[in-house]
Amino acid sequence: MGKDSRTRYSDEELKEFEVIILEKIDKAKIALEDIKSTLSRKNDSGTDNTAGTLKVLEDGADTVEKENLSQLAARQQKFINNLENALVRIKNSTYGICVDTGKLISKERLRAVPHTMHSIEAKLKQNK
């Protein structure tokens, strides 16, 4: 398959990506709600057991787990924000255009990472 020399994706193609992104947003929001409900359960529990040293260890483990869940929730929220920003780019017909090279990002890459703003070439250059 040769290089795509177009400057933007067609409305039909953008619609296809919009469907993919909307599905990912729905799944990500469900996952975020699960994380938040787990966190609130963690915050509610832990008052009944008063067994000295064991309690201190459990509190420490709980704190680490809460921090991990909080970080996971923050990453999930950032992912949702990135996907929502991608929807804005679809509406503006700028979706799928690399911000570094101005060329179209491959469909394969967009299907794998639908919120990306960088072609694989630009991404590899960034990582050097």
TrEMBL record:
<dbReference type="InterPro" id="IPR000962">
    <property type="entry name" value="Znf_DskA_TraR"/>
</dbReference>
<keyword id="KW-0862">Zinc</keyword>
<keyword id="KW-0863">Zinc-finger</keyword>
<keyword id="KW-0479">Metal-binding</keyword>
<feature type="zinc finger region" description="dksA C4-type">
    <location>
        <begin position="98"/>
        <end position="122"/>
    </location>
</feature>
<dbReference type="Pfam" id="PF01258">
    <property type="entry name" value="zf-dskA_traR"/>
</dbReference>
<feature type="domain" description="Zinc finger DksA/TraR C4-type">
    <location>
        <begin position="94"/>
        <end position="121"/>
    </location>
</feature>
<protein>
    <submittedName>
        <fullName>TraR/DksA C4-type zinc finger protein</fullName>
    </submittedName>
</protein>
